[in-house]
Amino acid sequence: MSKVEILAGGSIENAFKENGVDAAMTYKFCGNGCRGDFTVWEIEETDMKRLAAIDDEDWPDHLGWWWHASGSNMGAPNAEYVINGHTLLAWDDNRANWCSGCAACEGADEDLDECYGRRDSPDLLTYFYDEIGVTRPRNIAALAADMAKYNDMTMAELFSLTM
Question: Residues 36, 37, 39, CA angle at the centre, nearest 5°?
Fold first, then answer.
C-alpha cells in the first residue's frame, strides 16, 4: 500500500477516528493573525480515496477539512526563490514584468537578474499569497505537493524548512 500526504485543518482527527483512518501527523503549523492552524498528515492512499468519496454536503464541520493533490497546474518551476533563508525551485511567472526596460537590460536572464534582483519570502505561505496569489487550502496543497516534488522532499519537509 502506498501512502500520500494531505494538508488538513480543524479537527481532522475526528474524521480519521470516525472513518477508521490510521494517520500520522508529520507537520503542524500554529497560525497567527489571519493564518489558521494546519497540519500535514500521511495516510494510506486507499483511506484518502475513501475520505474523498464522501460528498462535501455530507462532510460535517466538526470533522475539520483536508485536501490532497498530486500536483498543480503550474508546470515545472522556472526560478529560484529564497524562502525562509533556503533556496528552492519555485515559480515566477511575473519575472519579465518586473524589468523596467532600463537601457542596461537586453532581456537576457542575466540582465533580468540584475534588474529584477534576488527574490526572498519570509515563509512559504507568504510566497504562495504574494507571489502566486494563492490563498485557498486546496490550491496551497497542490502547490506544496508540486514544490516538494521538484525540490526532492515531502510536503512535511517543505513546510518544516520554510515556515
Answer: 140
| Residues of the chain by 3-state class (helix, strand, coil), percent to 5 | 40, 20, 40
Whole-angstrom distance, CA of residue 155 vs CA of residue 39: 10
Out of 29-33, 74-78, 106-110, which region has the weakest mean confidence (pLDDT)?
106-110
Short-list 127, 135, 134, CA closest to 162: 127
Question: pTM of the predicted model, to two decimals?
Answer: 0.83
Q: Which helix (H) or strand (E) holds 156?
A: helix 155-162
Cell numbers for 107:
532581456
β-pairing, 65-67 vs 3-9, is antiparallel
Phi, psi of 134 (to 5 degrees): -105, 130
Amino acid at 90: A
- Rg of the chain over all Cα atoms, to the nearest angstrom: 18
3-class SS of residue 41 = strand
**Torsion sign across C-alpha atoms 150, 153, 154, 157:** negative
